[in-house]
Amino acid sequence: MDFVTSDGGCGGVRLSYERHGPAKGAPTVVLLHGWSLDRRVWSWQVDALGDVAVVAYDARGHGRSGPVTRTTATVARLADDLAEMLGAVTRAIGWCLSVIRSAL
Question: In percent, how much of the chain has pLDDT > 70?
Answer without folding.
Answer: 72
